[in-house]
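Chain A, query sequence.
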Amino acid sequence: MKKKLALLLAMMMLFSVGCGKEETPEQSQQEIQTEFRFEECGLAYTIPDAWVEMENSNLIPAPTVSPNSEIYAKICYNYTPDENLAELNNTESEIPVEELMTPLVEMIVVKEENLETEAVKSEMALYNSVEELPAQENFHFYFMTGYASGIGHFSDGAQTTYKELETYLPELKDSIETFLPDEDSVQQSVADNGKYLTFLTNTLEGDPISTAVFYDYDMTVVNFWASYCLDEGINELDTLQAFYKDLQKKHPNVNFVQVVIDTPTEAAEKKALDAYEEADVTFIGIMPDQHLAKWIMDNLNGLPTTIFVDQDGMPRDFKIEGMQDASYYMETTETMLSTLTK
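Chain A, predicted structure.
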């Protein structure tokens, strides 16, 4: 994983509070949530009040639910001291993420048939203490503390804070309730999420970009193309740039981006950037990550293809396949835009 992408992942964790839920602005302004119940994970617990009241106690939750993986669900609370926050948010930083924050506690959920898998054993080996919580049918729950790699990379003050945070782990453990995860809702959520266009990656210029690029617009036109298309004479960058400039004037609430599907590779990136420069492209070029690459494999028949995505990242049913002129792109965009209100 590229350093920049790893840091961006860490930055996004700052806004997560568990298993896909996010803290609302109202919560962050009024009070910090301390009680959590996650039906998908089969876990409920209460954060110690002391954690909220302590200074320099930045706890960054990293929750995941992966129903088809060896580890069904995971909730890890990472600690990072105040002095590391700026570097953690610096996408140009050369410092490894693991030196900027360290796990304080991790809770995992594992199905019985996966207990002896290498993935589960490796995860448990990261901690000096692994305590089993009450099982629920074929689901097993573990509370893991004492990160084996230690905290020697932290300053003396940060180490003191980390150790004080550890003293409240028994209180956290005592608050935990386990129950049977809602597998049906998880599977449905996975199926629904697969329909969305989601990514956490970089632009051709190397800047971090995510699905959040859709949120500020009523609709985004997304064009899929590859640098190798240039070898076959498939190059409509001039057309798309003209369409984009006209779009900015007529419909500033609509954005346009292009996904270059054969990146990231050095040769493809250079080829695409050279073509962008020649066409004076000002729209964003995106390099796909694994999630976006899978969506491309599952949904596209060929290149170029253009789709229309709402502000939640959900593609509309209609696609444009093949090259078109700028007027066709504009007419179709305006038609699709009108359907959003219906």
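The longest helix spans residues 237-250. Residues 1-30 have pLDDT under 50 and may be disordered.
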